[in-house]
Amino acid sequence: MSDEIHDLRSFLSVLDKAGQLARVDREVDPRDELGSVLQTLERSGGGAGYFSKVKGHAMPVVGGLLGSVDRIALALGCQKTEIVDRMGAALEPTGGVKPAVVDSAAFQANVITKDIDLGRLPIPKHAPGDGGPFITGGVVVSRDPDGTRQNLSYQRMQVKGPDKLGVMINEWRHMKGFLDKAEARGQALPFAVAIGLDPAISIAAGCRYDGDELEIAGAIRGRPVPVIKCLTSDILVPAEAEMVIEAEIAPGVREEEGPLAEFTGHYGAPWPSPVARVKAIRYRDGAIFQTIAGASFEHINLGNVLPREPLVKRFVSHVTKNVRAVHIPPYGSGFMALVAIDKVNPGEPKNVALAAMVAHVNIKNVAVFDGDVNIFDPADVLWALNTRVKPDNDVFYVPFSQGHELDPTSDKRGVQTKTGIDATQKDDRGELLQRTSYPQVDLSQYLK
Ligand SMILES: Cc1cc2nc3c(=O)[nH]c(=O)nc-3n(C[C@H](O)[C@H](O)[C@H](O)COP(=O)(O)O)c2cc1C
Ligand SMILES: [Mn+2]
User: Fold this and answer.
1) Closest atom of ligand 1 to CA, residue 170
2) What residues in the chain have per-residue pLDDT under 70?
3) 309 class by beta-carbon count within 10 Å (0-12 exposed, 13-18 middle, 19+ buried)
4) d(CA 264, CA 403)
5) Do the beta carbons of residue 195 and residue 289 sit within 8 Å?
6) Are residues 276 and 342 both part of a single domain?
7) Are strands 336-341 and 365-370 parallel, antiparallel or unpaired?
8) 3-state SS, residue 418
9) By alpha-carbon position, which residue is closest to atom 6 of ligand 1?
10) Which of 22, 106, 260, 419 could lock 47 by a disulfide, CB 3.0 to 4.6 Å apart?
11) Nearest to 292 by CA among 143, 104, 154
12) Domain range enclosing 364
């Protein structure tokens, strides 16, 4: 299946065939309406959204593509249970597949370098409290001013004028290192935004990797990502993108940017962010604009779930040989890890919880289950938490440990309390307790 996917359009047709694309043909306002439709689709188990009529624009918009485990499995061409190991393999530094430079791209069909007007693009204002329209689903391609190393990342961009963007770059991002170097020399930092992509590239961009994340996308697909040089810099961008925006950050300038719905499910505060000028926009004929609603499961899957589940699996595998499944549920904003094990020793679940807590700084709460619990089903998770946990024995805290600054329970430096929960069945009652379970039937045989 994954062989079929090489760009956005081929992924959309895979989603459509699988009944995972919700086509919205009614006119939808990109301001405050499109984001609500996306979020409603996601929370009701609907498909990704394809908006054919966006008010004031000829260009269609898609969003929510990687908002569910089913669609992530389709994107990776694997079973749902294989996602963690597929990502683990793709993130192995030795497994990277370098991109290959090509000499033409479909987005060369339409080129704008004069009278740039971002208002002509269907850039949504997603959540009601967002500070304005933001490019959120674009993958930023930047380059170390000292060399040839490229980097992929998500840096949301607020539209601040016809050719002006506010670019949010956290302190610890690779792109921040590039910007610091450029600014120290009084130089501008060029970058490109690739929009409308093979989901392997979207997934790679959310990963932290000490190299060019295009190599992760290549590893996912098992072949090089075709790339082509920008018009205004030497940056190499994915050649099969729907659209490429080229821009440049002015050195030393900061202006207020935000707020935007954050992965924590809260609005972030406005922030003094760098400012960029757009120099070129190119797009394919019939280009489709891709977006990600802030605080959506898609946002959390890309930034907090897919890159980190392999880390949790690796860390817990150090303390037990009996890992059945690992999951960072998007509804926990990336702060919770769930682990299912076939328990051998009574103390094993707590060691597993401790290991998961240090796999990534954001992991705050860890619950460890028996192998019969489906940790991908919130109903099963809550059932086990309520019927297999004796809090005085089974819950422990690690106060004053390091978490993420944006976690609303942490202090300004990210110091918070981590919680471990042994939600496995305890031996002293085990023989009395047989879990009820009804065989699952094929409902299509009953509902005609
Ligand atoms: C939808 C989405 C939006 C994001 N927005 C920002 C942002 O505005 N600023 C930021 O610094 N990181 C943001 N992130 C996080 C990082 O860009 C991203 O996870 C990436 O791994 C960072 O790349 P790096 O490790 O190469 O620095 C966002 C992540 C996602 C998935
Ligand atoms: Mn990086």
Assistant:
1) 11
2) 1-3, 430-432
3) buried
4) 13
5) yes
6) no
7) parallel
8) strand
9) 155
10) 22
11) 154
12) 308-430
